[in-house]
């Protein structure tokens, strides 16, 4: 079976699709350590819903994330195809 899918970078998506991307990214927030008021180290989470649009775009570009026009992440599909092409 062969299928063709149009792929888009984050910057090319409309606001609804970008919202779906941000929702997906927020399922896996970035962890970081910070010091609380008592001097203890605590783990905190950074969510992309709190980030500026250019920060989300930069994160997606650095990680090579690609999406459908509706904002569904599909970069993993391309990686699968490349893996199989490399085997043969």
Which short descriptors sum up this protein?
88 residues; alpha+beta; elongated
Please, could you describe this protein's structure?
The chain is of the alpha+beta class and 88 residues long. It has one domain. Helix content is 41%, strand content 14%. It is built from 3 helices and 2 strands; from the N terminus they run αββαα. It has a two-stranded antiparallel ribbon. β1 and β2 form a beta hairpin. It is elongated and about 60 Å long. The C terminus is likely disordered.
First and last CA, distance? 17 Å
Main sheet: strand order: 1-2
Number of domains: 1
| Computed structural class | alpha+beta
Task: Return the average pLDDT rounded to an integer.
Answer: 87
DSSP helical segment count? 3
Low-confidence stretches: 84-88
Label the overall shape.
elongated
Helix content: 40-55%
Per DSSP E runs of 2 or more residues, the count of β-strands stands at 2
How much strand content do the residues show? 5-15%
| N-to-C series of helices and strands | HEEHH
Topology, pairings included?
Elements: H1 15-26, E1 30-35, E2 41-46, H2 53-63, H3 75-87
Antiparallel strand pairs: 1-2
Short recap of the structure:
This protein is α+β, with helices and mostly antiparallel strands and 88 residues long. It is 41% helix and 14% strand.
């Amino acid at each position: 079976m062969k299928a063709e899918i149009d792929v888009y970078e984050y910057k090319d998506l409309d606001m609804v699709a970008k919202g779906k991307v941000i929702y997906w990214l927020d399922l896996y927030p970035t962890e970081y350590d910070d010091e609380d008021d008592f001097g203890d180290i605590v783990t905190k989470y950074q969510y992309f819903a709190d980030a500026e649009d250019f920060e989300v775009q930069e994160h997606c570009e650095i990680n090579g994330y690609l999406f459908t026009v509706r904002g569904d992440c599909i970069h993993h599909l391309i990686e699968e195809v490349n893996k199989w092409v490399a085997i043969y």
